[in-house]
Design goal:
CATH architecture: 2-Layer Sandwich
CATH topology: STM4215-like
Largest sheet: 8 strands, mixed
Helix content: 10-25%
Low-confidence stretches: none
Structural class: alpha+beta
Mean pLDDT: 92
Radius of gyration: 16 Å
Number of strands: 8
CATH class: Alpha Beta
Number of domains: 1
Distance between the termini: 10 Å
Oligomer: single chain
Length: 146
């Protein structure tokens, strides 16, 4: 694959209108591979991270089949707001069945399915002065380049 599973899943969540691109000025931006902090990032944001994949056998042609690990790290100004957003993202991803995602004019991927592997995990408040609420949800996604 030419793009990370986290990048593909983040693009899907943007396309579905659940999150916004990190270059936009709207709330609930998504960042791939990190969850930065700064005056332009916003308090309500999501980091979409690649985690360890799970190898699940081989296809008859010999190619290994992987379920790619992905973690959503949710930061919010309010406890209920963050928990609700994490739950909404998990519910939306549970509905994914063979969805095609275009990440550029050259590349598209099919998300066969997304399996949630944890519930919404409450991580508590950030340290420091902002004291925003933190949550995470983990998934396994089956992807292929189209």
């Amino acid at each position: 694959m030419n793009h990370s599973p986290a990048y593909i899943l983040a693009q899907y969540l943007i396309d579905e209108g659940l999150l916004t691109d990190s270059t936009e000025s709207d709330d609930w931006k998504v960042y791939v591979g990190s969850l930065p902090d700064g005056s332009l990032t916003g308090h309500n944001a999501v980091g979409c991270m690649d985690t360890a994949p799970v190898k699940d056998g081989r296809i008859m042609g010999g190619a290994p089949l992987f379920h790619h690990g992905i973690q959503l790290l949710i930061r919010s100004t309010g406890y209920n707001e963050g928990y609700t957003k994490a739950s909404a993202l998990a519910a939306a991803l549970a509905e994914v069945v063979n969805e095609e995602v275009f990440v550029s004019s050259l590349y598209s991927y099919e998300i066969a399915n997304v399996t949630q592997t944890t519930g919404v995990v409450v991580l508590g408040q950030e340290e420091g002065t902002k004291r925003r609420e933190m949550f995470s949800v983990n998934f396994l996604a089956t992807l292929k380049e189209v």
